[in-house]
Amino acid sequence: MIEIKNTRVLVLAPHTDDAELGCGGTIAKLLDQGNEVHCAAFSACQQSVRPEFPPDILIREVREASSLLGIPEQNLHLFDYEVRTFNFRRQDILDTILTLKKKIDPQVVFIPSVNDVHQDHYTIAQEGLRAFKLCILFSYELPWNNLTFQSTSFSILSEAHLERKIAAIKAYKSQSHRAYMTDEFIRGWAHMRGVQIQERYAECFEMVRMKF
Q1: Which helix (H) or strand (E) holds 162?
Q2: Hey, which residues does 78 pair with through a beta bridge?
Q3: 3-state secondary structure of 210
Q4: What pairing do the DSSP bridges indicate for beta strands 108-112 and 76-78?
Q5: 129 vs 32: CA distance, rounded Å
Q6: pLDDT tens digits, residue range 181-202?
Q7: Are 140 and 112 in contact (CB under 8 A)?
Q8: For position 211, what pLDDT does the model report?
Q9: Residues 183-186: contacts with CB within 8 Å, 24+ apart?
Q10: CB of 137 within 8 A of CB of 209?
Q11: What is the pLDDT of residues 61-76, one digit of tens each?
């Protein structure tokens, strides 16, 4: 089992809720283990927010969610790329990622799967891979967007870590209509991955690059 401790970690999230969904329990765990965790969200999806909510609602929600996980406010990095246009702005996004790389100098990086079918997720995965190809690199799972996913690495979660993930996801009230935001789905997903490694709960990752 590989332990990550006293390390700078960066999670790249295409949209404001992707980090919590894909690796919220692991973020909570890494923080408890003394790691410095940063999260960068590239879009607050203002163009697709439901009309009953203010356009900036996801900015408020991601701040609350990050706080519930335990991420310090200064370690949350928010950008305003327009949703579903990332593939047209690949170079700008790469430049933003390279600026984060220089500022944070992370040793461990989490990105979406390179097999994610959402165009924004795919762009962040590709540019993240390009920028951090020499780092320890994992892809997190978003099964509603992953036609294929290689379950090559697992993070064992405690009940407390899973509860923090669920609390963070509940902060996204503007997204509560989505089927994958329910407690039932999040807990069942973690339980399914836990069963695969004979643990109660887990999150699953594709191991892209490892050094030890």
Answers
A1: helix 159-170
A2: 41
A3: coil
A4: unpaired
A5: 26
A6: 999 999 999 999 999 999 999 9
A7: yes
A8: 83
A9: 186/21, 186/162
A10: yes
A11: 999 999 999 999 999 9
In the chain, the amino acid numbered 87 is N
Q: In this structure, is residue 3 part of a structural domain?
A: no
Tens of pLDDT, residues 129-160: 999 999 999 999 999 999 999 999 999 999 99
Residues 6+ apart with CB under 8 A from 59: 16, 44, 78
Four-point Cα dihedral 121, 80, 75, 145, nearest 10 = -20
Its domain, for residue 64, covers: 8-209
Assess contact for 68 and 201: CB atoms under 8 A: no
Q: How many CB atoms lie within 10 A of CB 50?
A: 9
Quote the number of domains for the chain. 1
C-alpha distances out from residue 190 to 56, 76, 123, 165, 207, Å: 30, 25, 26, 10, 18
Is 5 a residue whose pLDDT tops 90? Answer: no
162: Cα within 13 Å, side-chain hemisphere? 20
- Residue 204 burial (10 A CB sphere; 0-12, 13-18, 19+): buried
| pTM of model > 0.90 | yes
Angle between helices 119-131 and 90-104 (to 10 degrees): 50
Per-residue confidence (pLDDT) for residue 4, from 0 to 100: 86
Task: Output the domain CATH number for residue 12.
Answer: 3.40.50.10320
CA 181 – CA 155 distance, rounded (Å): 20
